[in-house]
Fold this sequence. Notes:
By secondary structure, this protein is of the alpha/beta class. It has a single domain, classed as Transcription Regulator spoIIAA (2-Layer Sandwich), CATH 3.30.750. Helices cover 32% and strands 20% of the residues. The chain has 3 helices and 5 strands. The chain has helices at residues 42-54, 76-93, 106-110; strands spanning 7-10, 13-16, 23-27, 59-63, 99-102. The strands form 2 sheets. A 3-stranded parallel sheet has the order 3-4-5, covered by helices on one side. Strands 1-2 form a two-stranded antiparallel sheet. Helix 2 links the parallel strand 4 (59-63) and strand 5. Helix 1 crosses helix 2 (76-93). The longest helix is centred in the last third of the chain and has 18 residues, at 76-93. It is globular and about 45 Å long.
Amino acid sequence: MFTQKQTINVKGKLMDFEYPKVMGILNITPDSFYDGGRYTTSESIKKRVKEIINEGADIIDAGGMSSRPGADIIDEKTEWNRLEKALDIIRNISAEIPVSVDTFRSNIAHQ
């Protein structure tokens, strides 16, 4: 039986999903339920991004708003300001690593 290879196009390059991929999480919220807001400064974000890459992640997932139960819903501008800073840092460290953005807002995802 012929099985088609599972891939997605990431900036013109095909990412193969024949084997599982590792996603490193970068929570850039002051009220993260997972890491307690450890990655809110430029230096801490740089350190975490380098750690994610050095540990072999295939993708970085960045979130600018906490999804923990009871978390406040922040405005779109605040979420984008957090993400923009982190995305700039990620791209300065590695322009090649794919980044997913954890958001429910279409305007944020589109940017």
